[in-house]
Structure formats: structure tokens, C-alpha cells
Write a structure and sequence with these properties.
Strand order of the largest sheet: 1-2-3
CATH topology: Four Helix Bundle (Hemerythrin (Met), subunit A)
Number of strands: 3
CATH architecture: Up-down Bundle
Structural class: mainly alpha
Helix content: 55-70%
Number of domains: 1
Low-confidence stretches: none
Order of helices and strands: HHEHHEEHH
CATH class: Mainly Alpha
Mean pLDDT: 94
Largest sheet: 3 strands, mixed
CATH superfamily: dinb family like domain
Number of helices: 6
Shape: globular
Amino acid sequence: MIRNSILDNLATIDQGIELLREIGAARYTQRIPVCFNSAAGGHMRHVIEHYLSFLQALETGEVDYESRPRDPLIESDPAYAIGQLEVIKQRLTAFAVENFDGMLRVRVETAPSDEPSPWAGSTTLRELEFLLSHTVHHYALVAVVCRLAGHAVPADFGMAPSTLRYLKTQSAAACAR
């Protein structure tokens, strides 16, 4: 089960790498005012740093998605971002071999501002599923930003792997009729 989740995460990361190889630095950093003044680079940085937080948690047992470095280089340099995604792929691939769904503690983000954030229990599988959903949703925003900047994005960019599998079965069923 965890291996399947990792494979879906890896496929989604590959989509990001392919897009970053295409769009160039100008479109990667171009802010789109009607889209919360965001840029593809900001969304990719956000996604990458969530994966890095998770990978650190595999060593520490604790994940704090809010305690990220917010590295401006990831946000401004698509080649550097690709390098970070490649590292994430290598580490996830190595983790897939272990096929271990261990317990993690996750910092809760909803604590009142005058109280320390508590921790909640989770598992590596649950966090991989969160990362997949989180990445897909940010990719959908990246697709909008890219399209508004004049760059054609593949129709399936920002679609969940489960949706793509469903569409494929529907297409196959329609062809069989």
C-alpha cells in the first residue's frame, strides 16, 4: 500500500520536473496579479519544502510543515528546483524499498496564537497521501498561473493520479462499446 502511494507521488513529481524543464526562468517567476499575485516558482517551492519536511520526519519522527526555510532559490531558479525534486525522488524511491508505514508526530497548525502548537499522531502512509493531494492542488494552481502567462500546460497537469486512472478506464470502456 505504501509503495503505491510513493509511486503516485513519484509520478506527480515527474510531472513537475517536466513542466519546469519547459517553462524557463521568466515564466517560472512571473507573478500573476489575478491569481493572488503568485508565481509558479512560489507554488513549486511550497510543494518541495513540504516534501523535504516529510523526508526529515522519516529521520526524526516529527514533521512540522510550517517550519520551512522558504528558500528563495527554489522559488527563483527552476534548475535548482528540478535538482531538489530529483533529490526528493531519490529519497522516496529508497524509502519505497523499505515499505515501512511507521508512526509520525505532526505539528498541528490550528493552535491559538498564544499557545504552543500541539502534536498529533499520523503515519508515513497518511502523510504521503497528504503530500500527493497537496501537490496535485498546487500543481492545478501552477497550471492556471502558467496558462495566464501564455504557456500551454498538458491537460493532465494538476490532476490526481486516481483521476487519471479513472479517465483511462472510462476511455477504454467507451472504446469497447
